[in-house]
Design goal:
The structure holds two protein chains of two kinds.
Chain A (H helix, E strand, L loop, with lengths): L10 E12 L6 E12 L3 E5 L6 H8 L7 E6 L2 E2 L5 H11 E4 L11 H5 L1 H6 L5 H11 L14 H14 L4 E5 L7 H18 L3 E4 L3 H4 L4 E6 L2 E7 L3 H11 L2
Parallel strand pairs in A: 3-8, 3-9, 6-7, 7-8
Antiparallel strand pairs in A: 1-2, 1-4, 4-5, 9-10
Helix pairs in contact in A: 5-6, 6-7
Chain B lengths: L1 H10 L1 H40 L4 E5 L14 E2 L2 H6 L4 E7 L1 E3 L2 E3 L13 E5 L4 H4 L1 E6 L7 E5 H6 L7 E6 L2 E13 L10 E5 L1 H7 L5 E2 L1 E6 L5 H11 L4 E5 H48 L1 H9 L4 H40 L13 H27 L19 H24 L5 H34 L2 H19 L1 H39 L4 E5 L5 E2 L1 H8 L4 E13 L8 E8 L4 H4 L4 E4 L9 E5 H7 L6 E6 L4 E10 L10 E4 H5 L7 E2 L1 E5 L5 H12 L5 E5 H44 L1 H9 L4 H37 L12 H18 L1 H9 L2 H6 L2
Parallel strand pairs in B: 6-11, 8-10, 18-23, 20-22
Antiparallel strand pairs in B: 1-13, 1-14, 2-12, 3-13, 4-6, 5-9, 7-10, 8-11, 9-10, 15-25, 15-26, 16-24, 17-18, 17-21, 17-25, 19-22, 20-23, 21-22
Helix pairs in contact in B: 1-10, 2-8, 2-10, 2-11, 2-21, 8-11, 8-15, 8-21, 10-11, 12-13, 13-14, 13-15, 13-23, 14-23, 15-21, 15-23, 15-24, 21-24, 21-25, 23-24, 23-25
Classes of the chains: A alpha/beta, B alpha+beta.
């Protein structure tokens, strides 16, 4: 199966010949090896690959949490490799959403405060109607005044996704968002992310090793040894598993 | 277990260092106190040895009561010298003088000053080994118009041999020709911080106002003589009221006199050291608690692998032992540096201390380790017990952090019990009768310490809501970083409370000192304005006072009144109150003129028409106490051995130290006694005329001949006394600052550990867009909120202590409570600034955290 080109859609973020090299000489490790990849607007992309394939590194570099050794990383019109630490922080705050594997929330803040945290840090009110809509979509409207330790794991992750959505970022990066929860909860979280793409037009990039999780995406990109080796459009869990077997992962 | 404990310490060097730092400071304080005091002791041991080289006995007047540290022995008749020289076994004897308050004036009109050391008038003798005065240059003075000065004064001031200089003597300013320079003792003791003016013996007798007398006679026995035998033979020729002491006894007396000054100095430093150590103990306990919280996983793994609770407890105790011992060793090093600093300070103030290594005695080292290890281990007892109760499965999935809710009831009961015990001890210290001041201060000190522990126990109950309330404005001002600062400060009440308590103790003590100081100042200034009606007050920084000729000179220059005031130790008895003996300070003044310069407030009797040679005035409290009335007979024993029999002539309202105490007699009566010196402590002056400038010029003219005298009008006088008090208070507060520095270390420690604990959370905040600046600000204001809480609790406690102390101190010293609110508010601001300062390092570290690694941390 071949990937279908998607030039028709605008690209929210892309890497151009991006390499990430640790160490030098004999101990040199190429975590990313001249990767070219684009993530289209309004699409849900999954990055898959075996451990050490560089999938997390790719996500961190794309999100401005880590820097590439060479090449370019572009979000919207901005080349991240030209930004200072402070500007990177502001870019993350204003243009990028995050969902991590666990402990996504600040324990002293309530759910709603966690959701509006990036906007509060920016000192802006944000789009309150939009925030209300996002909160409504999480189905947690009556629990927004609760602190994270009063919410279930799935609820916490939904709050985390809501936080990512609330600021209307250009792109959301999710790092194994269902890595720490049972399969029912995972379905609840992934369904919420899917609907964010379908109904809100959000762009989401998710790193995962779970074929079921990846099957919620529009497209799966496979990474091995820091290189993109394959991709799959409109995946099913079985199709992904077959692919991974082929790749020897 | 030992290896495990050591490994754990080495793995967390920074934490180890910060924990130890608090104790290091306390130990350093202890070491500095001992080393400086020992160094001073050895200086004076050397000096005592020098003074006594070549002298076997000293003959002098015997004090009938009191001791040598409080009163000068009366002089002896000079005729005694020949009797002593005639005693078999006596090789040599010389009569000597040593009178403080004899001041040479140099060519530029300047007079040498010392810091507490005497400016002595003395005589040279043919046998220099008996006096330890050695001629350096020129000639010894001969006859009534010559004198010599010591080499240090000669070098430091504008003097030339062969020229005439004025010397202010007890019989007034006189002119002498400078014939030579001399020094006292061996070269290293030449500069003990004294100024010597030397005359020949007949001149000394005359100008020191001791005609026919000596202060003492120094005696050397024949080399082969039997010392006790010779002493007996000398005793046999001595009249009543004189005594002979051996050089050993003299040295011992000298040592005792010195110890009465150095002992309190050492004690005061040690008290401050213990305050610092006490504060450190809280910090150590808190650090251990936090660290154990963070090590739950590790410790429960140990338990799962088969370590017994006892072994876990022992691991923690061994860690504290190692920290304590290391801190003690480092504290000794820092303490030696501190002692060097103190010596430099003392040298700057004119004391000369011996060169060479500072004396680090075994006793000092033992104390350093005892307090260093002791305080650390005691502080870790509770955390160690807690650690031993960690269950083998506690670490599975548990999030660290603490809560203030556990054992709430236990806290309330224990805290209330401790608070009650502490308050009882303090109340006892304030109001019960004590045999010794030491026991009283100990009761107060332990009481205060127990109250502080009670505060530490109770504080977690209120810390959470209080801190949250205090920090309420933060989210308004600083938005999200402020919000996070507030929440984090209120997050673990126990930790916040334990961190703040160190600051609380320091601030409580400072606030207490401020309240007592202000109350003292206000009482004093009102007492002064009530008591003194004089236009001017003349005082001096010389112990002996100003020559009595000054008052007469002022009167003859046209002052309306010049009334001397002086004090002498005395014993007072009366047949009206049989069995009572009052060891008192007898005030000596001019009864005829005292009314013009002071508001005695005579209640009974009349000052007019009193016979100065037989009248005694008594304060009304004492008169009531003794049952004395006008006309009653009273006996006054003087240190010269004489007894004055006088009659109560009037009863006055109250004592006004430092001007007058409860018994007052006339100077003319006192001057007839052998113990009378020729100095006055104060002179109160009134002037005629409407032109203050002219009258002041008149007084200044007279005073120009008396360089030791300071003339001040009432406002100036009050201001200078207050400024002395302020200096003292400032000094106390500087020492208490060390406790605040330790508190600062405690805040740094807690915040660093909290930041470490919140690594993941910080990573998350940074990932979603918190800038470094926002993060640092958040941590800074968290520290400020904790500090504010600690400061406010401290100020409340300190105000309580200060008010209690002000009420308890007798009314003649403090009769009111004054709160210096401006200073107290300033104190709180300073404390918050301390908190902000303490956050510099932890917030910097938090800002430098790698976002990715931080998020990966759990």
């Amino acid at each position: 199966m071949t990937s279908s080109p998607t030039q028709a859609l605008a690209v929210a973020a892309q890497a151009v010949a991006a390499s990430k090299i640790y160490g030098s000489g004999d101990t040199e490790v190429r975590a990313l090896d001249a990767i070219d990849v684009g993530f289209e607007q309004g699409r849900f992309t999954a990055i898959m690959g075996p451990s050490g394939s560089g999938k997390s590194t790719l996500m961190h570099c794309m999100a401005g949490l880590d820097s590439v050794t060479s090449g370019q990383v572009i979000i919207g019109d901005t080349d991240l490799t030209t930004l200072s630490e402070k500007d990177l922080t502001l870019l993350r705050r204003d243009n990028v959403g995050f969902v991590f594997q666990a402990y996504n929330l600040v324990p002293t803040l309530t759910a709603i405060e966690n959701i509006t945290l990036p906007m509060d840090l920016a000192g802006s009110k944000g789009d309150t109607a939009w925030v209300d809509e996002v909160v409504g979509a999480t189905g947690l409207t009556d629990r927004v005044k609760h602190r994270p330790n009063e919410l279930s794991g799935g609820q916490q992750q939904r709050v985390a996704v809501a936080r990512a959505l609330a600021g209307k970022p250009q792109i959301i990066f999710a790092d194994e968002p269902t890595g720490n929860v049972d399969s029912n909860t995972a379905a609840e979280i992934l369904g919420f992310m899917r609907s964010a793409v379908d109904q809100m037009g959000q762009t989401i990039v998710m790193v995962t090793h779970d074929p079921v999780a990846a099957s919620y995406a529009d497209r799966v990109v496979f990474l091995v040894d820091g290189k993109i080796v394959d991709e799959l459009a409109d995946p099913t869990p079985q199709g992904i598993r077959d692919h991974m077997t082929q790749l020897g992962a | 277990m030992l290896r495990l404990a050591l490994k754990s310490l080495l793995a967390h060097k920074l934490r180890f260092a910060f924990t130890a730092l608090a104790i290091v400071l306390g130990v350093a304080f202890v070491v500095s106190a001992f080393v400086t005091a020992d160094s001073l002791r050895s200086t004076f041991d050397d000096l005592a040895a020098d003074i006594n080289t070549g002298t076997d006995f000293t003959v002098r007047g015997a004090l009938p009561f009191g001791d040598i540290t409080q009163a000068n022995p009366p002089p002896v008749d000079d005729s005694l010298l020949d009797d002593i020289r005639a005693v078999a076994g006596v090789q040599s004897a010389e009569g000597g003088f040593f009178v403080d308050g004899v001041i040479p004036v140099d060519g530029s009109g300047e007079s040498p000053t010392t810091l507490g050391g005497p400016r002595a008038g003395t005589n040279w003798t043919a046998d220099p080994t008996l006096s330890q005065y050695f001629l350096i240059d020129g000639e010894w003075p001969q006859g009534p118009a010559q004198f010599a000065v010591d080499v240090v004064t000669f070098a430091d001031y504008d003097f030339e041999l062969g020229r005439d200089y004025q010397v202010v003597t007890p019989i007034g300013p006189r002119t002498f020709t400078l014939t030579g320079t001399m020094q006292f003792g061996f070269p290293e003791n030449a500069g003990i911080g004294a100024v010597f003016s030397v005359f020949d013996t007949p001149t000394a007798q005359q100008v020191l106002g001791l005609e026919g007398k000596f202060n003492q006679i120094a005696v050397r026995a024949e080399p082969a003589a039997d010392i006790p035998q010779v002493q007996d033979r000398i005793t046999a020729v001595l009249p009543a009221g004189t005594e002979v002491i051996t050089s050993e006894e003299a040295a011992e007396e000298f040592g005792d006199a010195f110890e009465s000054f150095i002992g309190p100095f050492q004690t005061i430093l040690l008290v401050f050291a213990f305050i610092v150590l006490f504060v450190s103990a809280f910090i150590i306990s808190n650090t251990f608690n936090i660290v154990l919280g963070q090590r739950v996983r590790e410790l429960s793994l140990l338990r799962a692998l088969g370590a017994t609770p006892r072994q876990v407890r022992r691991t923690v105790l061994i860690e504290s032992l190692v920290i304590g011992a290391t801190a003690a060793a480092a504290g000794i090093g820092l303490g030696m540096l501190g002692a060097l600093g103190l010596e430099a300070l003392l040298s700057a103030f004119g004391a000369s201390l011996p060169d060479g290594p500072l004396p680090l005695r075994a006793r000092t080292v033992a104390w350093a380790f005892a307090v260093g290890v002791g305080f650390t281990v005691v502080a870790s007892l509770v955390p160690a017990a807690k650690a031993s109760r960690i269950s083998p499965v506690a670490g599975l999935g548990e999030q660290s952090g603490d809560d203030g809710g556990h054992g709430r009831l236990w806290r309330v009961i224990a805290g209330a019990g401790l608070a009650a015990a502490g308050l009882i001890l303090i109340g006892r210290g304030l109001f019960a009768d004590f045999d010794s001041t030491t026991a009283q201060l100990l009761s107060l000190g332990i009481g205060a310490a127990v109250v502080f522990v009670a505060v530490a126990v109770l504080s977690p109950l209120i810390a959470g809501p209080t801190v949250a309330a205090l920090a309420r404005p933060l989210p308004w001002i600083l938005r999200t970083p402020g919000r996070l600062a507030r929440d984090n400060a209120a997050r673990s009440p126990r930790r916040t409370a334990a961190t703040a308590v160190a600051l609380t103790i320091g601030l409580a003590l400072v606030a207490m000192v401020l309240v007592v100081g202000q109350s003292l100042k206000d009482t004093f200034s009102e007492s002064l304005s009530d008591a003194v009606a004089a236009d001017y007050v003349i005082s001096t920084d010389t112990f002996s006072g100003v020559p009595e000729t000054l008052a007469a000179d002022l009167r003859s220059a046209g002052a309306a009144a010049a009334v001397p005031l002086d004090e002498y130790p005395a014993q007072v008895l009366s047949p009206v109150a049989p069995g009572r003996i009052d060891d008192a300070e007898l005030t000596v003044t001019d009864l005829d003129a005292i009314d013009e310069v002071a508001n005695l407030g005579v209640i009974d009797g009349n000052l007019d028409g009193l016979d100065p040679m037989s009248a005694l005035l008594v304060a009304s409290d004492t008169a009531d106490d003794w049952g004395l009335e006008v006309g009653d007979e009273v006996s006054v024993n003087l240190t010269s051995g004489e007894t004055l029999v006088v009659t109560v002539g009037a009863v006055f309202a109250q004592t006004r130290p430092p001007f007058w105490d409860e018994w007052i007699i006339d100077e003319s009566l006192h001057r007839q006694t052998a113990g009378a010196d020729r100095f006055d402590q104060w002179v109160a002056v009134n002037v005629d005329g409407d032109d203050p400038q002219a009258s002041r010029a008149l007084l200044d003219e007279v005073l120009s001949a008396y360089p030791q005298a300071t003339l001040e009008d009432r406002q100036e006088f009050q201001a200078s006394l207050e400024s002395n008090l302020n200096t003292l208070l400032a000094l106390v507060n500087v020492f208490l600052l060390f406790a605040l520095v330790v508190a600062l270390v405690g805040i740094v420690n807690t915040l660093t550990l909290s930041v470490f604990e919140r690594t993941h959370e910080i990573g998350l905040l940074r990932a979603v867009g918190m800038t470094r600046r926002q993060l640092r600000r958040s941590i800074r204001w968290e520290a400020a909120a904790i500090s504010l809480y600690g400061a406010l609790v401290g100020v409340v406690l300190g105000l309580g202590f200060g008010v209690a102390l002000s009420v308890a101190i007798p009314d003649d010293a403090i009769d009111r409570v004054s709160v210096p609110s401006g200073q107290i508010i300033g104190l709180v601001v300073v404390a918050v600034a301390f908190g902000l300062l303490a956050a510099v390092f932890p917030s910097y570290r938090a800002g430098r955290l790698n976002v990715l690694e931080a998020i990966a941390a759990d």
